[in-house]
Amino acid sequence: MANVVIVGSQWGDEGKGKVVDIYTEYADQVVRFQGGNNAGHTLVVGNEKTVLHLIPSGILHKGKQCLIGNGVVLDPQVFLQEIENLKQKGYLQDDAQLVIDSNAHVIMPYHKAIDIAREQKSGARKIGTTGRGIGPTYEDKIGRRGIRIADLVNPESFACKVREFLPEKNFLLEKYLGGTPLDEAAILEEYNAYGRILAKYVGNTSLLVNQGIAAGNKVLFEGAQGCLLDIDHGTYPYVTSSSTVAGSASIGAGTGPRFLDQVIGISKAYITRVGEGPFPTELHGDMGQRLREAGNEFGSTTGRPRRCGWFDAVALRYAVRTSGMTGLAITKMDVLNDLATIKLCTAYDYQRQRLDEFPNDLEILKQCTPVYEEVDGWQSDLSEAKCYEDLPEKAKDYLRKLEEVTGCPVILISVGPRRDQTIQLENPFKD
Ligand code: GDP
Ligand code: IMO
Ligand code: MG
Fold first, then answer.
1. Closest atom of ligand 1 relative to the 415 alpha carbon
2. Closest-lying ligand to the alpha carbon of 36?
3. For 341, what's the count of Cα atoms within 13 Å in the CB-facing half-sphere?
4. Closest ligand 1 atom, CA of 226?
5. Most exposed residue of 147, 242, 259, 331, measured as fewest CB within 10 angstroms of its CB?
6. Is the dihedral of CA 277, 281, 283, 288 positive or negative?
7. Nearest bound ligand to CA 225?
């Protein structure tokens, strides 16, 4: 039986949500294992669009169990809102479909306030975070002063922890960051109400996943963000605060690495980034604008315009290496429909030296310029292509080129946002 990990292989927003929605058909359980509502995963079924920030992208499939693992950080307000939106649309009619691990950490109001105030104070050196409190929540988790879901649903334990931690947070907020201190009673009242509603979704997801695997279930692990935003392997400090590479699925879902059979990296046919940080193939002029418009490149979470650039094979090879990818899903091929020529970066130039490997040192990366290869565009509409044979020869050439320069086989091609705009070449769940 195969279990499959889906990760972003660029700087996020590659179309992970869409691919997870498609692969859920073959899976029994879908697990989010890291990140929080900094993620925005878009699913389009027919004409209906759903954007999920916390709930796994398998939730539109009735009867498939969706789990939020211990590795996730959860904002209860956003979580409950997302549940309500889904129920209104007729999904999640059975509450047992959704389980959140009691060890997942809670994003508190002070985490959001600190995230925003720090960014403001940093000025030009800001990270460009989503302002959702992700970094400060993971800091507290590692600092052993976090509040977990188990505490949230236990009012005594919750009050005790808020009383212990809030004075230090208010001191930081008020005296160092120049913000407004938060009121303890207001936090308790608001969060106790969340705890009461949320309690029915709380469980032990590690146990459920492992029991599922033992019973022969197929598990789909849903990553958020992308490999280049990984806290260790990404373009630090311009990264998110969790491990986004495939190995994180084991820790964030509470199962052994030997159960992660396939790793599928999701990548656009070009590349985008939201927030600050180096981006060797970024296009600043008309071409960048053209990709942004054709690809509707505006953030699903914050609405910020995404920075756009040509496909970066150096970065992608690095993502293949750090996540051990076994296949690639290439999305947004249709965005390149009109282009007469397409560039792809196959190496970097650093002080007149050719680099084939992504540099570890950010100071080197900042000085790298792309070495491009140029290929012909297909200049026709791919958006109604239903199978590989429907693709024009030049689109097939581009896909073959991507396989060659990344060393990883393409197993899925996406030609539009809708579920039915997908060409599957291989099923990663097959034995
Ligand atoms: P995620 O964070 O990786 O799940 O990706 P997002 O949902 O943030 O961003 C991907 C965006 O591209 C969404 O608006 C999707 O609906 C859209 N999308 C996904 N695949 C395709 C595709 O093949 N073509 C086009 N045009 N849009 C796509
Ligand atoms: P999905 O799952 C794209 C980026 C932010 C910022 C950096 C740190 O939809 O692909 P954070 O709020 O996490 O502390 O911000 O990470 N970022 C994302 N960019 N897609 C995402 O998620 C992202 N989640 C965080 O823009 O640069
Ligand atoms: Mg997104």
1. 23
2. 2
3. 6
4. 3
5. 259
6. negative
7. 2
Integer Cα distance of 85 and 89 in angstroms: 6
CA atoms within 13 A on the CB side of 369: 3
The residue contributing the CA closest to ligand 1 atom 10 is 15
Count of C-beta atoms within a 10 Å radius of residue 406: 26
Rounded CA-CA distance 14/269 in Å is 9
Residue 234, token pair as written in the block: 């990404």
Packing angle, helices 184-198 and 76-88, rounded to 10: 40
Q: Give the tens place of pLDDT for each residue, 392-409.
A: 999 999 999 999 999 999
Tokens 């009461």, residue?
A: 196
Q: Where are the alpha helices (DSSP H) in 123-236?
A: 134-142, 149-152, 155-171, 184-198, 205-214
Q: What is the mean pLDDT of residues 371-376?
A: 98
Report the greatest alpha carbon distance in the chain: 65
CB-based burial label for 64 (10 Å; 0-12, 13-18, 19+):
middle
> Is residue 212 within 6 Å of ligand 1 at its C-beta?
no
Looking at every residue in the chain, the average pLDDT score rounds to 97
- Residue 12 buriedness (CB in 10 A; 0-12 / 13-18 / 19+): buried
Q: Is the dihedral angle over the CA atoms 305, 310, 311, 316 positive or is it negative?
A: negative
Residue type for 293, please? E
At 303-351, the pLDDT tens digits run: 889 999 999 999 999 999 999 999 999 999 999 999 999 999 999 999 9
Report the alpha-carbon distance of residue 354 to residue 336 in Å, rounded. 28
Mutational pocket test of ligand 1: of 24, 42, 240, the residue with most ligand atoms within 8 Å of the beta carbon:
42
Separation between Cα atoms, residue 355 and residue 155, nearest integer Å: 56
List, for residues 93-133, the tens digit of each pLDDT value.
999 999 999 999 999 999 999 999 999 999 999 999 999 99
Dig out the tokens for 375 from the structure: 């290929």
